[in-house]
Specification:
This protein is mainly beta. Strands 1-2-3-4-5-6-7-8 form an 8-stranded antiparallel β-barrel. The N terminus is likely disordered.
Length: 191
Amino acid sequence: MDLLRSRWSTMWAAVGLGCLFVCPAPARAQMFVELGAGLNFVSPVPSGAIYGSGSNLQASIGWKVEPKIRLRVDVLTSQFDVKAMVNTPCPSFGCSGPPGFSFQSESVNGVTANILADVDARGILYLIGGAGLYDVHTQSTERLIGVSAGAGIAVPMGSRLRGVVEARWHGLLGATSGPTWLVPITVGLRY
């Protein structure tokens, strides 16, 4: 399974680089690339597991299609810790051990297609919404469709470079184990 995930990552990196070199110059002028990382917050689960905040990484490629509208494709991964109540083994027969906690790391990986709409004329404040495919790795692996919505701030730091802070809610539709939503807060750079 790790080999398959590695191949998907390699494929997405190759597609992204291919787009940069194959696109004509006018299209490249409207193209942007974003890299970011940050924290995420995860929904509670009724099974008794307690999710802690975790970390996220995101790589994006996008295109400006109108003066205030951009399209963006994101590849993201969110890692988080889960604490679940388990019964500990008993040193002798006939007794029940005290309950304890099990700690493990779980993740949600995804590919989303999004629309970004500028709220102000300078393009600093924007709204984002989209849909995508998510790969949830908990006790089992689920592949889910999801939706996302959020807002961000893109502060100019140079002629094309912007510092970006974004908060986005991802709803995982039909999740049977693991979180039903997560909210990554990402800080990064757009060029």
